[in-house]
Design a protein that fits this description.
- It is built from twelve helices and twelve strands.
- It is α/β, with parallel strands linked by helices.
- The chain folds into three domains: 198 residues, Isopropylmalate Dehydrogenase, CATH 3.40.718.10; 103 residues, Rossmann fold (3-Layer(aba) Sandwich), CATH 3.40.50.2300; 37 residues, no CATH class.
- It has a ten-stranded mixed β-sheet with strand order 2-1-3-12-11-4-5-10-8-9, with helices on both faces. Strands 6-7 form a two-stranded antiparallel ribbon.
- The chain binds nicotinamide-adenine-dinucleotide.
- Keywords: Oxidoreductase.
- Belongs to the isocitrate and isopropylmalate dehydrogenases family.
- One of its GO terms (molecular function) is isocitrate dehydrogenase (NAD+) activity.
Length: 361
């Protein structure tokens, strides 16, 4: 039986990397029945939304999605399709491994981090207030009355909230992941010294959950210190669990440690559904140029194969990707010593090389 998977190519460079990724996934011999769904700037123009309901309905049917990046116009009031998708399907865990592979140009060796980011709350919950609206004025009045803080009405506000339930399940997810994947340590990352109530609740809940996993080391770090530590001594860290915003930032930082966004995969996982996508965005300036690196989405495909229990195919595809990286020939501009290196190949040629390699494995 082929695996039914919702395929969302996305926009910008998404369709090119999605096409390349589907080709290599099919070349593993695993059979897929793709349910192709459009989301992004084109559906915004045609249907007035970046995330049509059909996309959600399709994932509810197939239970698994493979997704290219989707552009979020900055400051235009349009909610991110990515954030909405994760919220509507309750894909509460964003799993972003960052691993150095031979051949990647990085300042570091032997990095093997796993970022577990809470995906549904925090400043990304999308609860925002615009200046001059009656509801914002009401909120400012309440804040003034209950806290004594007189906030400048010529301002706007985004709400950060963190719950015990969401923190418990993300920290448990991190520990369960650590246990299942034989990892040694979980580090909870926070800013509880300043946001004593919201991050404080995240931290105290994480401490509680950690007690249920005596076989796994546990510690916590303040997020600014964490950034410096990751740059100075990343080898000390293993699985990191973070609230939404810090998780987003630290996963890009970790992608930088291993050689760039072109090779950083991700998964959004909930109790019922899972959507696999690269960490990077739609890189719109390169759209349609057959230029960007499809490997981050291909590594996300490896994660999807494991989720579908196609372990042998996952291992073969990962091995093929590792070999291509180690050889450094059939790779895109971002993995070359200089971005204008004339020997860089295009998106689709990377897929050709991976497929060729899969035939020998
Ligand atoms: P981006 O990740 O799209 O690009 C930043 C830079 O990283 C690019 O200019 C390029 O130099 C490099 N890069 C990214 N992907 C690459 C690849 N596959 N190969 C080679 N180089 C690559 O980040 P951005 O410019 O901040 O965001 C562009 C749009 O993407 C925004 O609208 C943003 O909201 C959206 N975005 C979407 C997702 C998602 O769909 N999950 C994630 C992040 C950003």
């Amino acid at each position: 039986m082929p695996h039914a998977v919702t395929l969302i190519p996305g926009d910008g460079t998404g369709p090119e990397i999605a096409e390349a990724t589907c080709r290599v996934l099919e070349a593993t011999g695993v059979q897929f029945s793709w349910d192709m769904q459009q989301a992004g700037v084109e559906t915004l123009a045609k249907q007035g939304t970046v995330l049509p309901d059909e996309v959600i309905e399709s994932i509810k049917r197939t239970k698994v999605g493979l997704k290219g990046p989707i552009t979020t116009p900055v400051g235009k009031g349009q909610r991110s399709a990515n954030v909405t998708l994760r919220k509507r399907l309750d894909l509460y865990a964003n799993l972003r491994p960052a691993k150095t592979y031979q051949g990647l140009r990085s300042r570091y060796e032997n990095i093997d981090l796993v970022i577990v980011r809470e995906n549904t709350e925090d400043l990304y919950a999308g609860i925002e207030f615009q200046r001059g609206t009656p509801e914002y004025e009401e909120l400012l009045e309440l804040i003034g009355r209950t806290t004594g803080h007189q906030i400048d009405p010529n301002s706007a506000m985004s709400i950060k909230y963190i719950s015990v339930a969401a923190t418990r399940r993300i920290v448990k997810f991190a520990f369960e992941y650590a246990r299942a994947n034989k990892r040694r340590k979980v580090t909870a990352v926070h800013k509880a010294n300043i946001m004593r109530l919201s991050d404080g609740l995240f931290l105290s809940t994480a401490h509680e959950v950690a007690k249920e996993y005596p076989d796994i080391q546990y510690e916590d770090r303040i997020v600014d210190n964490m950034c410096m530590q990751l740059v100075q001594k990343p080898e000390l860290y293993d699985v990191l669990v973070l609230p939404n915003l810090y998780g987003d930032i630290i996963s890009d930082l970790s992608a930088g440690l291993i050689g760039g966004l072109g090779v950083a995969p991700g998964a959004n996982i909930g109790n019922n559904y899972a959507v696999f996508e690269p960490v990077h965005g739609s890189a719109p300036k390169y759209a349609g140029q057959n230029k960007v690196n499809p490997m981050a989405m291909m590594f996300s495909g490896v994660m999807m194969l494991r989720h579908l229990e196609e372990r042998e195919a996952a291992n073969r595809l990962e091995k093929a990707l590792m070999q291509i990286l180690a050889e450094g020939k059939s790779v895109t501009y971002d993995l070359k010593p200089r971005p204008d290196d004339p020997s860089a190949v295009g998106t689709s040629q990377v897929a050709d090389a991976v497929i060729e390699r899969l035939r020998c494995l």
